[in-house]
Write a structure and sequence with these properties.
Layout lengths: L2 H5 E2 L9 E2 L2 H11 L4 H11 L7 E5 L5 H10 L3 E6 L2 H10 L5 E5 L12 E7 L7 H14 E12 L5 H11 L1 H4 L6 H7 L3 E8 L3 E7 L6
Parallel strand pairs: 3-4, 3-6, 4-5, 6-7
Antiparallel strand pairs: 1-2, 7-9, 8-9
Helix pairs in contact: 3-4
């Protein structure tokens, strides 16, 4: 059984996706998995999100709040809401969060409680692969719904190694969802969800980034 099977499971939290409940263990795993580059990568993700001072940002599948806190650094007087189905991991996030403009709430990507057109930016990283494939389009539709017209979407997802040996090693450590992550389908899924200005880039070592904009004028 890989380490990913110990960290990711589903204790019936109201979602068909996998959840992470051991926040401390997950942060240790993340530090090792990114080879010391995790902070650099996530700070870059916060910049690529397009979030700026005063924005209201939703970080879906926030886990321990690692991206949430880096987004908080770029919104200044704005607010970042971290959302995750696991109450246990959110308790951990609250304990380690010092930023006053971060809040956390329990919720699921495929059925967001937020009102339509309520966020300037919606972001997530290493979240979509936790959902069954038939729920990913539903989650993207929800992200589009809660974004304001002209609002920005950022998705960071795991990019498996091209080398078969490396890919198999990833599977042994984390499980099949990351080993066989269909990363090339991500941008087309975002287009199908009705977003515009869809762009893709890679961040070393493991992340495929997709950014997009909800159609409509910024109010």
């Amino acid at each position: 059984m890989g380490l990913g099977h110990l960290l990711h499971h589903n204790p019936a939290p109201g979602t068909a996706g996998l959840t992470i409940d051991h926040g401390g263990s997950y942060d240790v795993f993340g530090a090792v998995f990114f080879g010391g580059r995790r902070d650099r990568v996530y700070r870059r993700l916060a910049v690529l999100s397009g979030a700026g001072p005063g924005d209201l940002v939703l970080d879906i599948g926030c886990g321990t709040g690692y991206l949430t806190r880096r987004l908080a650094a770029v919104v200044g007087s704005g607010t970042v809401v971290g959302l995750d189905p696991s109450a246990a991991v959110l308790d951990h996030a609250r304990r380690i969060t010092k930023e006053p403009n971060c809040t956390y709430t329990v919720g699921v990507a495929e059925s967001l409680s937020a009102q339509d057109n309520s966020f300037d930016v919606v972001a997530n990283c290493l979240m979509l692969h936790h959902l069954p494939e038939d729920l990913r389009a539903t989650a993207l539709a929800e992200m589009r719904r809660v974004l304001r017209p002209g609002g920005r979407l950022l998705i960071g997802e795991f990019r498996p190694p091209a080398n078969p040996v490396g890919r198999h090693l990833v599977g042994a450590l984390t499980g099949p969802a990351m080993e066989h992550n269909p990363i090339d389908l991500l941008a087309p899924m975002v287009v199908d969800a009705g977003f515009e200005q869809v762009d893709s880039a890679d961040l070393h070592p493991w992340i495929r980034v997709v950014t997009a904009v909800k159609p409509g004028a910024v109010e």
